[in-house]
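Bit of a strange request maybe. I'm writing a small parser for structure token strings and I need a real example to test against, not something I typed by hand. Could someone generate the tokens for this chain?
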Amino acid sequence: GDPCTINDFCDLGVCVPGEGVYAMTIDTLRDCIHGVTSPNGKFFTYHIESGETRVDDIYDEFIGRRGNLPRAMLCHGGNVYFSGKHGYIIRYSPEDGRFENTGAKAPVGRGREFLSTVSALVEGADGTIFGGTFADGYLFTFCPETGEILNLGKPSIENRVRDLTLGRDGMLWGLAGDDDQLTH
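Reply from user aminoacidic:
Good idea to test on real output. This should exercise your parser:
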């Protein structure tokens, strides 16, 4: 059929048969979509122009259990970032198709590492990566060059930073709260 325009909804097909899309991000440098599926944690790259899909099985090495499926992904500096088991930040390099545990770990309360996953990611105006966590609702920054994580604390008493976005004025906006809590 005809190519999609910006105002159309288009069915791009199934990336991984039997799987749903759990998290994804668009890679404007390569004109593709990177994502992770549920329930089996398959990492996929969908090339928008050709419709071709590459699938990698990262579950055992980087995810380890269903609760650690990435809930957020971000393209930054040509790489894709998301969290894996125990909240470790994983880097995918589309350049060479490699996955790497950066060694950086999202903040989480002591003894709750098995619940740790990043639930929101956004790039700030100066290139800083801001993230929010699922289990404890922490806000943090991540520097890919140094691997440094800086815990900025809890913006709300509730768990789970649901989403983050950057306003045109440079202000970071977010939502915090789980399904059974008030969202602030």
